[in-house]
Amino acid sequence: MDIILCHTTADFDTLGAAVGVTRLSPGSRIVLAGGCHPGVRQFLALHRDEYPLIERRSVNPDRIRSVTVVDTQQRDRLGKVAEWLDLPVPISVWDHHPHAQSDIPATETHIEALGATTTAIVEQLRLGLEPDPNRLVLNVAEATVMALGIHVDTGSLTFDHTTPRDAIALAWLMEQGASLSVIAEYIEPGLSPRLQDLLTTALDTLHTETIQGHLVSTILLETPEYIAGLSSVAAQIMEIIDTEALLLGNRYSIKGSDEQRLVVIGRSRISGTNLQTLLSPWGGGGHPRASSVSLRLTNPMVTFQEILEEFKKQIPHQPVARELMSSPVRTIRPETTIHEAQRILLRYGHSGLSVVNETGTLVGVICRRDLDIALHHGLGHAPVKGYMSSNVRTIAPDTPLPEIEDLMVTFDIGRLPVLSEGSLQGIVTRTDVLRQLHQDSAIGSQSNLSGSPPYCPLPREVASLLSDRLAPQLVNLLNRAAQLAQERGWHLYLVGGAVRDILWAIYHQEGSSGFNLVEKEKSQKEIEGDRSPLLLTDIDLVVDGFDSRTDDAAGVELAEQLQKLYPNARLDIHGQFQTAALLWHKDPDLDSLWVDIATARTEFYPYPAANPEVEASSIRQDLYRRDFTLNALAVRLTGPNRRGEILDFFGGWLDLQAGQIRVLHANSFIEDPTRIYRAVRFAVRLGFEIEPQTQGYIRLAMESGVYLRSPELTRRVPALETRLKNELKYILQAPYWQRALQLLDSFDALRCIHPSLKLDRDLWQQLRSVDRWIRQIQGTVNGAESPLKTLPESWQIRLELLIAHLEPQWRVEVAQNLQMSTDSIERLEQLATAEIAIMPVRETSRPSEVVRLLSPYDRTLLMAIAVMSPKALRRRIWQYIYHWMNVKPLLNGNDLKALGYKPGPQFKTILDSLLAATLDGEIQSRSDAEAYLAQYFPRDSIQQP
Q1: How far is 398 from 381, CA to CA, in rounded Å?
Q2: How many Cβ atoms sit within 10 Å of the Cβ of residue 638?
Q3: pLDDT digits (tens, 9 = 90+) for 695-733
Q4: Long-range contact list for 52-56, CB < 8 A, 24+ apart?
Q5: How far apart are CA 603 and CA 347, in angstroms?
Q6: Which H or E run includes 823?
Q7: Cβ count near 818 (within 10 Å)
Q8: What is the pLDDT of residue 811?
C-alpha cells in the first residue's frame, strides 16, 4: 500500500497536493493526519467519495510500501501517523517551504520556493502529458481541489510568495475543467452565526497602535472551548478595518484540566515582516503573510504579549529624510545664467537645482522644465533668479517617509530640500521616494538568497549572511571601519566587485550551479561544494554622509584612522581622486589585501576616453559612475537600523542571477573604451552573456569612429595608456584569454589598440603557436623540465605579438602609448631588422652557424619571429631556443689553465671554437675536446700575453 499523508488541520493545499500525487502514483491512498480547516471539512462533506481517502485506523502498517508527505517537513505536524516514518520504506516529501527545518528521514525530496505545494505536483502532471496529450486527463473534482489548493495558499495569486509558476499551474487546471463556482464558494465562505458574533466582539475589543509608521492591531478573545474558523474572522477584520497587521488570539480552557490553550492567527501586509518566522519557534506554520500556532500554556496572556513584542521587532525601521536624501547638494547662485544652469544639469544628470545666496541660505529651486522654457524663448543669458521658485517647501533630516510622500503628492513637488538649522544638508527627490517604496514592496517577506528565478527580489538585510560568508578577520576589519565612520556621522558602504562576488557565492551556496567569483581563480574541482569563508583580496569602501563634516577628504581621513588600528598596513593617498588605500602584504591574518577607501563621488568626462574629472557626491551618484549593474551594488555597513541593507539602484541583482552583463548608460563605452574590455572580461570569466542592448552600445561606440584618431590625439588619450594596458593584462594572463580575444574582435574592439588591428587568421595562428611555445619552454608539457630561465610573463609575450602584427611604423608608438616596459619596446623596435638579419638561418645546416646568427637576439623576440615565419625558419629557431642556446663548451677557462694555457684574449677564441665544434658534433667528450685543442690550438702556438 502506498500512503500519502496530509498534515494535521489539513488545508486545501495539502489536500490538493495529495490528490495530485494519486495521479502521479496510481493506487495511492490519502490519509488525513488529524483535523481539517472548516472550509476543507465542509468541502469533504460533499466530495469525500471522489478522492481515495482512507481512515488512519484502516491502515495496516505492515502493508505500507511507501510514504509520501505533502505540504510539511515536520513530524509533529503529522500527529500519530508520524510513527509510519520509522518504517523501512521509501519516503518522499513535497513542500514549498525551502527554509523550514526538516526532521523527516526522506529518501526523495521535492522542495521549492513556490506559492503552493500543489504547483510543483501540477508541473509534474503537465510533464506527463507532453509525450501523449491523451495519456492523462484530470477529472473535474481533481482539477477543482488542486486549484483550490493554489488559490488559498497564494491568496488567489496576490500573496508576496506567489510565483509565475503558480499562475501557470492554475491556468492549466482551469483548462482541465476546474469548477470556478465551487472555487468561489470555498475561497469566500460566509461566516456562521457564531463566528459573526465573535467578529462583533473582536471589533469591539480591537486594540490598534502605530509601530514605525504602521498600524498594528491585536485582539485576544476568550471562549469556553475551541472555535473553528477563526482564520475567516481574521480575514474579515483585515478587510473591514484600516490596519496593516493583525494578531488574533483565542484563549480557551481544556475541560477537566487547569491547562489552557492559546490559538494565535497572524495576518500582515507590512513589508519586511514574516509571520512564519515569527511563529515557528512556538511550533507554528504557514506563510510570511499568514500563519498560525496552537499552544498548550499555563499563562496565555504572557505568551501572547511575547509574540506581539517579537512581531514589533520585525517591523522595519521607517526611513527618514537623512537616509533617503542625496548629499552634498549641487547648488547655484541667483545670478547664474540659464545657459550655465542647463550645462550643470547636463553634466550631473540632475532634474533640478537648489539656488542659494552668498551665505549659503536656500532662496529657491529651479527645475529642468523652467530652464527649457527660458531657453525656448531665447533667454539663456538671463539669471535664474527670475525663473526659480522661491516659495520652497522643505523638510528636516528626521522627517519620515510617509510625511515626505504626502508632501510630494499634495503639492506636486518633485524635490524637497533637507534643512537643519537653516543649513542645506541634502535633497530628497521623487525618484528617491519611489525607489524606496518599490524596494519595500518588492522585498516583501523574501529573506533568502536561494536559487530562485530572476524575479525573486534581493533581500534587504544581508549583514548576517556576510558574517557567515566572509572570513572572520575581514568581518572584524569592516566592523572597525564602520565604527570609525559612524563616530564621525558618516555612512560607510561596501561596494563594487566584493559585493558582487559575495552575493554570487551566497547565491550558489544555496544550491545553484556555478562558482565563487573571488579574484583568485579557482578550479571547478576546488570550488564544488566549497562553503569555506571568502578571503577577498580587493575591497572597495565608500564614505557618504549627511552633514557638513563629510567633505572631499572623508575617505582619506577614515583610511588614516583605520591604519592606526592596523599599523602593519601601508597607506597610499591619491588626492586627485579623493581616495586612499591600505595595503597588506603576506599579513598573518589578512594575507595580501588591498582596501580602497573613497569619498562618494561623481565623474564627468570632458571628452571621450579622457581621465574623468571627480567631485564629491552621494552614494547613488557614486554607484552610477560605475561600469555595469552587477558592479554597482553596495551594502550599508553603518547605522543601527539599516546596517546590512543592500543598495541596488540599477537591477544588478537581477542581472547577476540572469547571468548577463548590462552597462549603466548608453555613453559609457564612448567615455571609456576600457569598459568594452571589462565587459568582455567579465562575460567570459563568469560565463555570462553581454546583454543585447549593451552589445549595441559597444558596436555603436566602435562604428562612431571615436577611437580612430590621429597619432597626435592618441598620444594624449589616457584611456589608451594605463587603463587599457591593465585591462589587456587581466585578459591576456587569464586562462580564458583566447575566448576573450575572439569576443573583442567580434566587436571590432581591438581597434582601440590601433585602428588597423584585426584578429585575422594569421594572427590567431601565431597567438596559439606562441602559447604552445610558452608552455613547452616553461616545462609544462609532459612534466619536462626546461633548462631556460624564466620568460617574461605570458600576457606580455601575447601583447607584444598583437602589436607585432601591426605595420612596423606603428609598433613602437603603440607600445609607448600602452606604457609597456623598455625591454618590450626594444624588442618591437628591433623586430623588422631582426627578421631580415636572421634569414640566412634557413640556408645553413650547421648548428654553430645558427647559434652565431641568433645569439645576439632576445629569445622572446625570436619566438615572435618564429611564429610569424615559414616552417623551416621556425624549426631552426625552436632548435636554437630549446636545445642549442644553452649548450656550453666541454671545457671552460679553468680547464684551459689546468692544461697549461695562459689566460688572455685568446681564451674567447678558443672557447668559441670549442662551442662550435660541440654544437656541430665534432666534439662529444672531454677527451675529444682536449684532442681538438692539441690539433687546432697547441700550447706552443698560442701567443702568450
Answers
A1: 39
A2: 21
A3: 999 998 888 776 665 444 444 455 456 788 999 999 999
A4: 52/22, 52/28, 53/29, 54/29, 54/30, 55/31, 56/31, 56/32, 56/80, 56/81
A5: 9
A6: helix 822-837
A7: 20
A8: 93
